[in-house]
Design goal:
The structure holds three protein chains of three kinds.
Chain A: H1 13-37, H2 45-70, E1 74-76, E2 84-86, H3 87-91, H4 101-108, H5 123-146, H6 148-151, H7 154-163, H8 166-192, H9 197-204, E3 211-213, E4 220-223
Antiparallel strand pairs in A: 1-2, 3-4
Helix pairs in contact in A: 1-2, 1-8, 1-9, 2-5, 5-7, 5-8
Chain B: H1 7-15, H2 20-33, H3 41-52, E1 57-63, H4 69-74, H5 82-89, E2 90-95, H6 103-116, E3 120-124, E4 127-128, E5 137-138, E6 141-142, H7 143-152, E7 156-160, H8 161-166, E8 179-180, H9 182-188, E9 195-198, H10 205-217, H11 236-239, H12 243-246, H13 250-255, H14 265-269, H15 287-290, H16 321-325, E10 335-337, E11 340-342, H17 344-368, H18 383-387
Parallel strand pairs in B: 1-2, 1-3, 3-7, 7-9
Antiparallel strand pairs in B: 4-8, 5-6, 10-11
Helix pairs in contact in B: 2-3
Chain C: E1 2-6, E2 16-23, E3 26-34, H1 40-44, H2 49-56, H3 64-79, H4 85-111, H5 118-121, H6 126-136, H7 143-156, H8 178-206, H9 226-254, E4 271-273, E5 292-296, E6 299-301, E7 308-311, E8 349-352, H10 368-377, H11 381-393, H12 406-437, E9 451-459, E10 462-471, E11 474-481, H13 483-487, H14 499-504, H15 516-524
Helix pairs in contact in C: 2-3, 4-8, 4-9, 4-12, 6-8, 8-9, 9-12, 10-11, 11-12
The chains are: A mainly alpha, B alpha/beta, C alpha+beta.
């Protein structure tokens, strides 16, 4: 029974902040979005719409910043190591991820006892994190297509025509919100199901002791619990 | 100015009790209707006055699979009234619902004009292709047999009402009579006559008048860009903004003041109808501005949520307003998965709940497997490295 | 034998073909075909009961109000919902506005050209026209301006909607003075404006017309205010005034020149009315125009939708769609070919059985004549007075049977307009009183529950019934028996002609190429 050490080098301060901003934006967007979908109490539509637009811009700017920062900020190569490399290298698939998809699936389905080795993120984790990037932009796009001041712009107008009108666009926007909600649920579950060290690090920037990994091979080399 | 010297129009108008002031006012509102600045009013006046001396422009009004509602609607216009349109502005040689002739004589009136060509063809109702076109028979044969020639020889086609645009309710699932819109029919028959689409059920007659002005007096036939059509062939000036954008109840929407039940105190106060399914936010028409029945009122003002009868998609089957907007009192349309009909809300909540339930079950597994506290021990090496026999 | 065909029959709602056999200048046989199939029933299947109101009214662009009301009534009956008093008045007023609109439109815009020849009006003397208008007690207009406009129009050479009209037809009353033709033309133009005022009433209370928005299941979404009702009252006053000062006097002025039309065009003499305009009791046989059916002589029974049966032997539907009550009805189209010996119409042959579930049933006429006859036999006082005084004016006092004719059918429609015009103002005043008193409801909140219901009501052109079967909150079955379905019904299982077909028998035809009397009879049903 052991989990990797969680060092600040894995999530530098700037990413702790972007993660916080993501969380707050997404919760605000989901709440205000539900309200705009159906106003379940009165007197809030103007505020809800204001919130929805504000946090949409915050989320999109934050995401864009996060992507650019990935090329300049260094983060740990693997969990349980203080050795860093440019973050984007750790975000995109790495040599250490190769061949690990099936083992991860087997592990989650209780068909494999041992924890598969990985890089900073596991295979499925990486797929999910990378997918959120285009999803967020598409979400923004669908939102703009539904938004009065923008819906007449030729880009958004043709998008509306592509999906068969605003009603269909609304439903796509609505279903995508559920995709984000489900992503968030799975993300929060998997991050914390084996202990709260990841949350302590990403939210409070608190380190936790644990297994040490070799940044080159990705294998356990020591640390607490070895 | 030139138009002030135009005595013929003056006497014509005077005979109808229309003053010059009324006439210019009408020109101004027509300008607004066409999405132009009111400063265009003198130009419109000049165009109309110039045109009035010419013989009336030839037109046909063809009823397809129609309920005659668009004709009825046309009878409600007063800017100018329908008598002026059919007696003075246009020569509508075929118009089933109001024409004097019948039978063979009516058909002959149509055939003569079709042979001559160069007319405006106004088409009301759905193009009925079902049962080899026998879903609508006129003069002893399927109407679709005569349509290619009628459309081909026209200078322009104005498809009035949602039925003519994309089949309307007639084309709604399961489209039992094979209804399609005029544009689709023209595409199938390689007819290149320009089509102007004016959806809503029925058509708002003010828009038809606007098209008459455009086509006859502003040279739309020579230069289609006058019409400024969008990709669904709708004039942008009319169908460019949503009902929501111009709604008189919009203030209540922003305030979060909603009607959740008909006949309630909120309804009496004129609160926003969004929560009872109003389709104003996704329906592109200027109904709140031109209103209906001689500007007497319009749907939302009478307390009824918009049902999106102006939603139209002539390029895609199933884009008709009924399939897109029903159930009308819900916020979302129904979605069809095979025979199963459901609401997006149900699907979203069900999938969300299923995901959470799956995670809970998985959590129980994790607990049972003893992985809750720190997870399982790490593998020594990747499985495939182990298989390759790599022990290094 | 020579067959004469009129296809399309114009100046009606929809698409229709009339085929007659003429023998010695008299129609000896007739076939009437509805030539359009759209399949409303299939479109509504599996949709929500609350959606049917919006979609089903779009069967007819001239009588959407009545279809809409029949649809909500069917849903309300299925769900056991009773609409409140405020909604009753709002619906009655909207319905009345449509009746007035429709009857004015029929008489002037659709029907008049069969009796009035605009070319004859050209030779009218303007001063004499004023004198004649005064003598006939009908409305005065700027006859000089109308004559000028008409002359300019004819001289332009573009006859527009008058192209190929049967001008100078020998069956136009030859002795009808040119001045009366001109009066009618003037009122033809004025009627266009007045029908617009009637429609604007629906615009205010229903959102728009045609196709209105407010009479949803459970009541109405229209919450009246005094200001809005003032707008409505002003318009009603104008419309009712036109009915009393133009529609009725014109009818009485023109009728004497067409007295032969009392002798043909009658039809089966069997009448059906589901009843229209509810009283506070909401009972069909107590309505202002009550429910009732007459299948023999002048004996009236209460009419029930259980007694309705539809045949498809001569209609383009699968054979197993026939012989059913619409509550069990099926609509599966089957195109074969047009043949008067076999199938020849998209309309089903709907019949009224004197005993529910037995026999082929009777070909009953529906419409204003049917409603007025039923109300007359039932002794509805204002109707009795109207009919008796009109019969006296036409020189047939105490002979209500002459109403069963072409002229009777036309007159009954206009008399009904007069009756409803009076009622509408009463209802409006009553509603304004309610607003001042406060505490009146317009909508009954309800859950969607499963069940079967029928909404039986009247449209201006006749009886309309919607049959709704709700299962699992969705429409499992929907059937509409529209007014025109009754009147233009083709032959039934026994080969018996429908009401319009029967009415055409015996119609005199002077010119087989231009059978003016035939189209008069067909149009008199306002199909």
């Amino acid at each position: 029974m052991a989990h990797p050490a969680h060092y600040r080098e894995a999530h530098p301060m700037v990413f702790v902040l972007t993660h916080w901003i993501n969380l707050i934006s997404m919760v605000s967007l989901a709440f205000s979005g539900f309200y705009i979908h159906y106003p379940f109490f009165s007197g809030f539509m103007g505020v809800a719409r204001g919130m929805h637009f504000f946090f949409m811009y915050v989320l999109v700017v934050n995401l864009t910043f996060r992507i650019i920062a990935a090329f300049f900020v260094k983060s740990a190569v693997v969990n349980g190591s203080r050795q860093q490399d440019t973050d984007i290298k750790n975000w995109l698939p790495q040599e250490a991820n190769r061949g690990q998809m099936i083992p991860w699936l087997k592990y989650y389905l209780f068909l494999k006892k041992d924890h598969p080795l990985g890089a900073k993120y596991g295979v499925l984790q990486k797929i999910a994190y990378i997918a959120t990037v285009p999803l967020t932009y598409v979400m923004m796009w669908t939102g703009f297509s539904l938004y009065g001041p923008y819906m007449n712009h030729p880009w958004f107008e043709s998008s509306l025509a592509l999906v068969g009108g605003p009603m269909n666009m609304r439903i796509i926007h609505y279903f995508m919100m559920w995709v984000f909600i489900i992503f968030t649920a799975i993300h929060a579950y998997l991050a914390n199901v084996e202990g709260f060290a990841p949350s302590r690090l990403i939210f409070a920037w608190k380190e936790s002791e644990g297994l040490e990994f070799d940044p080159k091979t990705g294998k356990v080399v020591g640390g607490k619990g070895h | 100015m030139a138009y002030e010297e135009n005595g013929a129009l003056q006497s014509l108008l005077a005979a109808r009790g229309v003053t010059r002031r009324d006439f210019l006012k009408w020109c101004g509102s027509t300008a607004a209707l066409l999405g132009m600045a009111e400063s265009f009013a003198p130009q419109i006046a000049a165009a109309v006055e110039g045109a009035v001396l010419q013989p009336q422009a030839p037109a046909l009004w063809i009823n397809g699979g129609a309920c005659t509602g668009c004709t009825e609607s046309m009878a409600q216009v007063d800017t100018p009234d329908v008598a002026t349109i059919v007696l003075d502005l246009l020569s509508v040689n075929y118009f089933e619902t109001i024409m004097m002739a019948q039978g063979e004589d009516a058909e002959a009136a149509k055939a003569d004009l079709v042979a001559k060509g160069g007319y405006v063809c106004i088409y009301e109702g759905t193009v009925m292709t079902g049962f080899e076109g026998n879903a609508l028979r006129v003069a002893g044969k399927p109407q679709v047999e005569e349509l290619p020639e009628v459309f081909e020889n026209a200078a322009a086609i104005v498809a009035v009402g949602s039925c003519a645009v994309d089949g309307g309710w007639v084309a709604a699932n399961p489209n039992p009579a094979g209804g399609i819109g005029v544009l689709e029919f023209c595409k199938e028959h390689n007819i290149e006559t320009p089509v102007v689409n004016l959806p809503t059920c029925p058509v708002n007659p003010e828009w038809v008048v606007a098209m008459v002005i455009d086509v006859l007096y502003l040279g739309a036939l020579e230069d289609l860009s006058v019409l400024d059509l969008d990709e669904f062939n709708r004039p942008k000036g009319i169908f460019g903004q949503t009902i929501h954008d111009n709604c008189s109840r919009r203030g209540h929407f922003e305030n979060g003041e909603f009607v959740t039940e008909f006949g309630s105190v909120e309804e009496a106060k004129g609160y926003c109808l969004y929560a009872v399914g109003c389709k104003g936010p996704q329906t592109f028409t200027n109904c709140p501005i031109v209103r209906w029945n001689g500007r007497a009122s319009w749907c939302v003002e009478s307390g009824a949520p918009c049902i999106g009868c102006g939603s139209a998609n002539p390029l895609e089957a199933g884009g008709n307003w009924v399939d897109v907007n029903a159930p009308f009192l819900n916020r979302h349309r129904d979605i069809h998965v095979g025979d199963w009909v459901t609401q997006p809300t149900v699907v979203g909540a069900a999938v969300g709940a299923a995901a959470v339930a799956a995670l809970a079950v998985h959590g129980v597994g994790m607990k049972a497997a003893g992985r809750m506290d720190g997870g399982a021990p790490y593998e020594e090496m990747k499985e495939r490295d182990a298989k390759k026999g790599g022990g290094k | 034998m020579a067959r004469t065909i009129v296809d399309p029959l114009t100046r009606i709602e929809g698409h229709m073909r009339v085929e007659v056999e003429v023998e010695d200048g008299i129609v000896s046989d007739a076939w009437v075909s509805g030539t359009l199939y759209r399949g409303m029933e299939s479109v509504l299947k599996d949709r929500r009961p609350q959606d049917a109101f919006y979609v089903s009214q779009r069967i007819c662009g001239v009588c959407p109000i009545s279809h809409g009301h029949a649809s909500t009534m069917a849903a309300e009956a299925a769900m056991g919902v009773q609409i409140p008093e405020g909604a009753r008045l709002v619906r009655n007023i909207i319905e009345a506005a449509q009746f007035l609109h429709s009857h004015i439109l029929w008489f002037y815009t659709l029907g008049a050209l069969d009796y009035v020849d605009p070319v004859k009006a050209l030779s009218a003397n303007i001063a004499d026209t004023y004198a004649l208008a005064e003598a006939a007690g009908t409305r005065v207009a700027d006859f000089g301006a109308v004559a000028k406009r008409l002359t300019a129009f004819v001289e332009s050479g573009n006859l527009s909607i008058f192209t190929n009209g049967w001008f100078g037809h020998p069956e136009y009353a030859q002795d009808m003075p040119a001045e009366l033709h001109l009066i009618a033309v003037a009122h033809y133009l004025e009627a266009l404006e007045v029908q617009g005022d009637a429609a604007a009433i629906i615009g205010i209370m229903g959102g728009k017309f045609p196709h209105f928005m407010t009479s949803v299941n459970g009541g109405t979404t229209f919450v009246p205010t005094e200001q809005k009702l003032d707008d409505v009252l002003y318009r009603f006053t104008k419309v009712v005034d036109f009915v009393n000062t133009a529609l009725i006097p014109d009818t009485l002025a023109i009728a004497p020149y067409y007295l032969p039309a009392l002798g043909f065009g009658g039809g089966t003499g069997k009448f059906l009315s589901w009843g229209v305009f509810d009283k506070p009791s909401f009972k069909a046989d107590e309505r202002y125009l009550p429910n009732g059916v007459i299948t023999s002589g002048l004996a009236v029974d209460n009419a029930s939708t259980d007694n309705v049966v539809e045949w498809v032997d001569h209609s383009w539907y699968e054979d197993d769609n026939g012989g059913l009550n619409p509550a069990e009805g099926r609509t599966k189209a089957l195109w074969t070919d047009y043949s008067t010996d076999d199938k020849y119409s998209w309309g089903k042959s709907v019949r009224y059985q004197t005993t529910a579930g037995s026999g082929t049933g009777e070909a009953t006429e529906v419409g204003p004549l049917a409603r007025m006859v039923v109300a007359y036999v039932k002794g509805v006082e204002p109707v009795v007075d109207l009919i008796d005084s009109t019969l006296a004016a036409l020189g047939a006092p105490g002979q209500p049977e002459v109403l069963v004719s072409l002229l009777g059918r036309v007159a009954a429609r206009n008399l009904e307009a007069a009756y409803i015009g009076g009622l509408s103002i009463d209802w409006l005043v009553e509603l304004i009183g309610y607003i001042k008193g406060g505490d009146v409801e317009y909508f009954k909140a309800h859950d969607v529950v499963d069940g079967k219901g029928v909404g039986a009501w009247e449209a201006p052109r006749g009886s309309v019934a919607h049959f709704m079967d709700i299962q699992g909150g969705r429409i499992a079955g929907y059937q509409v028996v529209a007014p025109t379905t009754w009147d233009i019904a083709p032959r039934d299982a026994d080969g018996v002609r429908g009401p319009m077909e029967e009415a055409l028998i015996g119609t005199p035809v002077m010119d087989a190429e231009k059978p003016l009397n035939v189209v008069r009879v067909a149009r008199s049903f306002d199909p």
